[in-house]
Amino acid sequence: MADKLKLDKSEQLYQEALTQIPGAVLGIRRPYNFVPGEYPIFFDSAKGGRVIDVDGNEYIDYLCAYGPIILGHREDEVDDAVVNQIKNKGFCFSLTQPVQNLLTAKLQELIPSCEMAVFVKTGSDATTTAIRISRGYTGKKKVLRCGYHGWHDWCVEVKGGVPEKLYEDVYEFEYNDLDQVRDLMKKHGSDVASIIVTPVGHPLAKPVEMPKPGFLEGLKEIAEEYESVLVFDEIRSGFRCDLGGAQKYFGVTPHLSVFGKAMANGWPIGAVVGKKDIMMKLADDVFLSSTFFPNSDSQVAALKTIEVLQRDKVLDVIKEKGAFFAKGLKEVIEKSNMPVEFSGEPWMPYITFTADEDKLYKKLRNEFYTQLIRRKVFLQPYHHGYVCYRHTTEDLQYTINMVAESLQDAKKKFL
Length: 415
Known about the structure:
Elements (H helix, E strand, L loop, with lengths): L7 H11 L24 E5 L2 E4 L4 E4 L14 H13 L10 H12 L5 E5 L2 H16 L3 E5 L23 E3 L5 H11 L3 E6 L17 H11 L3 E5 L11 H6 L5 E4 L10 E5 L1 H4 L1 H4 L11 H16 L2 H23 L3 E4 L6 E4 L6 H15 L2 E2 L14 H22 L1
């Protein structure tokens, strides 16, 4: 068993924040989403593939800020480009700066569905914009959804403060279940504006899924049969599975898609891209505006990030590292002879425990992730991780070894 981490300062800051901010920190960053009392609550700094908490503990960071860090923390080339923009040109104006056009041209070059694009700040902004465009284009109101699409009223899972009328026209379906989609469309298809799906399935606290043969193709066929708009939510898969997104990797082009996270290596940006005739609804009929959407700092970061991704063949390297990581993890999981599953290869590694009637899996999960964080490996019990460019082979091998040790510790305690 590994020694418990010293987390005094983190706990002190948490207690202070409880008097200042509802819940102390926001949403998914709250302690109950990890192992309370074992994980840090506040980070101090980061570089490359590592983070340091306020108590000085250093971790290999596989959560990567929940996905935006594709290269590494504090990537000099990206950050220097942004600092240069801020110092020498400025970034927040009443009118738009030319970098908007440069970034759009780059997206048009790379993303199959991108004939036109608009930029926003977050993934939630992007998915909500895509739904608004879809409704404006089709004149319909219902939406079929699969996956996490953000915190806005139409899609948020926790319904507190959201009137039912704001989501009563939204219907969920299970990933890889075309029959369910067909059944929903038989009932509602004449009024379905959009089918929105994460092309890689990543349900909360469940194994990551890849599309079964024909699933994404089938969604497009169904959408076109009912004259609905197919939207790929590529907030997590974009600029990670492929420079053109999962749509390029899997060979299925949707009508609209949304991007964010890895697109700018941590700088806040989202993009909605799609077919010209659909996107043109934003020119007159559908309203989109924000003080900060046109800010050039994040657009510069995105342009530089994409430049580095292309120049250094970063995604090929990440895929190779991810495959190595997955092979090692699957081997130690198999040897452990425990009810554990690895998924998300090669981009979104996730270790989950198989549910049982006695709820033993919850105890095993907590103990495993307790032992793993004590060994300075930062992964999340309820959310898949990521592999970034700056993770070294040594980092990955160390992690494989620590997963093996942590599984054995959990096994000794409960099995």
